[in-house]
Design brief:
The protein has 341 residues and is α+β, with helices and mostly antiparallel strands. The protein folds into 3 domains: 86 residues, Probable tRNA modification gtpase trme, domain 1 (Gyrase A, domain 2); 89 residues, 2-Layer Sandwich (Alpha-Beta Plaits); 121 residues, Aminomethyltransferase beta-barrel domains (Elongation Factor Tu (Ef-tu), domain 3), CATH 2.40.30. Helix content is 21%, strand content 34%. It is built from 8 helices and 17 strands. The chain has a 6-stranded mixed beta sheet, with helices on both faces. It is globular, with a radius of gyration of 20 Å. The chain starts with a helix and ends in a 13-residue tail after the last strand. The mean pLDDT is 97. This is Aminomethyltransferase folate-binding domain-containing protein.
Length: 341
């Protein structure tokens, strides 16, 4: 996206002021009933949050391979939402239905078509949200990873304090008939705050600078939870699908890990480019692009663990030419994550 100045402007707006992006592309799954928490605690490898909170959780196959990277929200003891990839929603629906066979105290619905929405992100996003609701949205009252069933822009909404941009941000979900009203009110309230609409190319640039993987590219069933780094979110003290295999790999150590590369190039990767070390292919690019805030060309790849060092000399083949690359050992933007918290 380096060739497109408008993407750079969108990234700049999110980093310095506030941006808005439509999020109807997320899939939404709803679980209700007395057994909902117990069911999700087994199907998901991560921790199930308490009421009014959300957590990120990987979902695995029995083989230990990734099958989902989902945000799980607890509205109350018997109502839960899972937000995830729209591209994988049918795959996930079939998986949920398969594992619900014989379970009588859980009701499942794919409610993706019932929710559209807009996410706002950036230093001015809290001020923007405060202009759209009567609720207290201060950091003390509306904490990072909180979720509320509320009214925003005078329409009923689910609001989550979370963002894939790495900035302070909120995801606002509404029924389709309220989407236009929500958009118009956000646009009006954010006019003097530097509000700018941003798209998926800008979002991909923002998340690369945070060293965050994305489903269908960096996270997919080709890789395990330990290889992907999503084992950070696993609750190893419970039983879950895929635990036996995953625990064995955790104890023995994975042979490769998802890593970020900085590439010396004027041409960005598009995916599947060869990653070379000493004239040998040691991996391939899973995703990449230009980090507009940090001014660097970045790519993600699964590297053998023995090569994950900032002094390792690598090359990436882009359009038939080899470009020098090095391993990024920590996020180039806000490595502590303080901005979004």
């Amino acid at each position: 996206s380096r060739a497109h100045d408008y993407v750079a402007k969108e990234v700049k707006a999110v980093r310095e002021k506030v941006g808005a992006i439509e999020i109807a592309s997320f899939a939404n799954h709803k679980f209700t009933g007395k057994g909902a928490r117990k069911f999700l605690d087994y199907v998901l490898a991560g921790r199930i949050p308490n009421q009014g909170r959300v957590n990120l959780s990987p979902m695995l196959r029995k083989s230990g391979k990734l099958y989902g990277d989902l945000t799980v929200a607890c509205m109350n003891d018997e109502t839960y939402y899972l937000f995830g990839s729209s591209a994988a929603q049918d795959m996930h629906r079939r998986w949920f239905e398969e594992n619900l066979e014989g379970v009588g105290d859980v009701e499942y619905q794919n409610v993706t078509e019932d929710f559209h929405g807009i996410a706002i992100a950036g230093p001015n996003s809290r001020e923007l949200l405060s202009r759209l609701t009567r609720e207290d949205v201060s950091s003390e009252s509306f904490k990072f990873r909180d979720i509320r069933d509320t009214f925003i822009a005078d329409v009923p909404a689910l609001c989550v304090r979370i963002s894939f941009s790495g900035e302070l941000g909120y995801e606002i979900y509404v029924e389709p008939q309220y989407q236009l009203k929500l958009f118009e009110e956000i646009e009006k309230a954010g006019e003097d705050l530097g509000l700018k609409l941003f798209g998926s190319r800008a979002l991909m640039s923002l998340r690369l600078e945070k060293s965050w993987g994305a489903w269908t590219m960096d996270f997919r069933p080709d890789f395990t939870v330990t290889e992907s780094g999503l084992d950070f979110f696993v609750n190893w003290d419970k039983e879950f699908i895929g635990k036996a295999v995953s625990l064995k790999e955790k104890e023995n150590g994975a042979k490769k890990h998802l890593s970020v590369l900085e590439i010396e190039t004027e041409t960005e990767v598009s995916g599947d480019e060869a990653v070379m070390h000493n004239d040998k292919c040691v991996g391939y690019v899973t995703s990449g692009g230009y980090g507009h805030s940090v001014g660097k060309s970045l790519a993600m790849t699964y590297l053998p663990v023995e090569l994950i060092d900032e002094d390792t000399e690598l090359e990436v083949e882009i359009l038939g030419k080899f470009h020098q690359a090095s391993v990024v050992m920590k996020p180039l933007y806000d490595p502590s994550g303080s901005k979004m918290r």
